[in-house]
Specification:
heterodimer, A: alpha+beta, four-stranded antiparallel beta sheet, 5 strands, B: about 290 residues, alpha+beta, eight-stranded antiparallel beta sheet
Chain lengths: ~100, ~290
């Protein structure tokens, strides 16, 4: 399942139960958009997974709504390109892909 | 003749402590809001701190309050950014949000909640930019509403992987505090949440960690700390490792899933000062129904 299959906007409760997985290349493009349109005092920090992809908790999507700190970045992204490239999986499955956090 | 409504309506700035009013003004300028009830609670906190004579101890303090907004502007606006309102200020004008969203915050009966994965606040406060001698004259404090996982609450962590004397850690993680070196002091055991954690170093041979105003055993191991350039992060640990650790390269790790009601960074506190700060913090958290 990808973001193209999800009815947006999502609820926070749904967001904390799911995860967004994407490539480093897509992350780089989103970071460029955020640096261009976003605010420097609010940033997203994707987590590297053991399979080389990056992950964010899906509740980050609530920040893309009007007034949210990701909204300007979001509306300047090409949704036809972005949405199909973000996989959505249940949080329990994402946990299995997380490396052990190094204290 | 009916009373003029303007005479009956309370003035928004009437009677608040100047620093509470200043905080509210900054919250609004940052795009957030704060209710009159909240500003009064903040004002009462400021008055208690002033009455205890401990205002100048604080280099930064954030009570995580104000109305919830989509960019968490109010929550990220610290009340104190220096030892006085008009004096030297430390760190960012706001705490930088790393991955928090609106749903992570609830002002009344809640706080700001981490996820143990990637959510944190970067303060921009660096030990080496604080007053000289911070490594032996310091405190860190966090109001921890829920236990969460057993990971870092507030931290600046410089760790030489080989040389043990080149490890300069400033951190509160659950019930343990370290200031200046990796040798820490534990707070008393068995204290239920919510709890107010305060670790304070008054010299190279004296470190205490208080929980809800009660101190654990004194840590008297002599330390030779260094105030590093690793900024403080809340909800995680800003970690740099190596032999020696590379300057300027730190990574947030060891994230907590606790719900927090505020934090502070500052100079050391005596037992009576710690007691006064604890009382002021507990009264504030009670006003926001977070002391349960």
């Amino acid at each position: 399942m990808t973001l193209a299959d999800i009815a947006l906007p999502i609820t926070y409760e749904w967001g904390v139960q799911n995860a967004l997985l994407f490539s480093p290349a897509l992350a780089q493009r989103l970071a460029e958009l955020h640096s261009q349109y976003g605010r420097p005092d609010c940033i997203a920090m994707p987590v590297p997974l053991t399979d080389g992809r990056l992950m964010l908790t899906a509740d980050i999507l609530t920040a893309t709504e009007p007034g949210g700190w990701l909204h300007e970045m979001w509306i300047h992204a090409d949704m036809e390109v972005l949405l199909p490239r973000v996989e959505v999986i249940p949080w329990a499955e994402a946990l299995a892909l997380l490396p052990a956090e190094s204290p | 003749m009916p009373m003029n409504g303007r005479l009956l309506r309370p003035r928004a700035s009437g009677g608040f402590h100047p620093e509470a009013q200043d905080w509210r003004n900054r919250v609004v300028a940052n795009g957030g809001t704060a209710s009159t009830t909240t500003v009064k609670a903040v004002s009462d906190f400021c008055r208690r701190i002033d009455a205890a004579g401990i205002r100048s101890i604080f280099y930064r303090l954030n009570l995580f309050c104000g109305n919830s907004d989509a960019s968490l502007n109010a929550v990220r606006t610290p009340l104190y950014r220096g030892p006085s309102l008009g004096g030297t200020q430390y760190g960012g004008t706001t705490d930088t949000n790393v991955s928090f969203v609106q749903g992570d915050y609830s002002e009344i009966g809640g706080g700001l909640t981490g996820n143990g994965i990637n959510k944190s606040l970067q303060t921009g406060v660096r030990p080496d930019q604080l007053p000289v001698g911070f490594e032996a004259n310091a405190h860190l404090a966090v109001y921890q509403r829920t236990a969460g996982n057993s990971q870092a609450l507030i931290s600046s962590y410089y760790y030489n992987t080989v040389t043990t004397t080149d490890r300069h850690n400033y951190e509160l993680a659950q019930a343990n505090g370290t200031l200046g070196r990796e040798i820490g002091a534990a707070g008393p055991t068995g204290v239920a949440h919510p709890r107010f954690l305060l670790t304070t170093r008054s010299s190279s041979t004296s470190l205490f960690t208080y929980i809800n105003g009660t101190a654990g055993a004194e840590q008297m191991a002599a330390v030779a700390g260094v105030a590093t350039g690793i900024p403080f992060i809340v909800f995680a640990r800003n970690l740099v490792t190596g032999n020696p650790p590379a300057a300027g390269l730190y990574v947030p790790t060891f994230h907590t899933s606790s719900s927090l009601g505020g934090y502070s960074i500052g100079a050391s506190m005596s037992p009576s000062q710690a007691a006064a700060y604890t009382a002021a913090m507990q009264a504030f958290q009670t006003a926001l129904s977070r002391n349960v």
